[in-house]
Design goal:
Radius of gyration: 16 Å
Order of helices and strands: HEEHEEEHHH
Largest sheet: 5 strands, mixed
Length: about 120
């Protein structure tokens, strides 16, 4: 399945299940672990857990059973790793605390090469 269709499926699944403040971040060229990051909030620990379950079920229905889920014990922050797309589902106060949006939206500084340091 093309990345854009997988992305749309995950966002639609989260939206249908009343996830709040869904944000989709393009990581292409910024990270090597995924091409997209989807961040959303659930209203409670139970809602966070059920959102993760629905995303996993939607992926399995497509035959994508190689998903990894982390954080379901506490359900403050659950991560669903679907390969090219990573989904972070937070309780609102935990999301505000970690503020992944800021970390990934700000351009990353370029690390100077060794040659640049020698010439400086």
């Amino acid at each position: 399945m093309p990345l854009s269709q997988l992305e749309a499926l995950i966002v639609r699944t989260l939206d249908d299940r009343k996830a709040e403040d869904i944000l989709n971040i393009n990581l292409t060229g910024k990270a090597d672990f995924a091409d997209r990051m989807i961040i959303c909030s659930g209203t409670s620990a139970r809602h966070v857990a059920s959102l993760a379950d629905y995303v996993v079920a939607a992926l399995k229905a497509l035959g994508l059973s190689q998903t990894t889920v982390e954080g379901k014990d506490a359900c403050d922050w659950v991560l669903v790793d679907a390969g090219d797309i990573v989904v972070h589902i937070f309780r609102p106060e935990i999301r505000r605390h970690y503020n992944l949006e800021k970390m990934w939206s700000v351009p990353m500084p370029e690390t100077p090469s060794r040659a640049d340091l020698v010439l400086a």
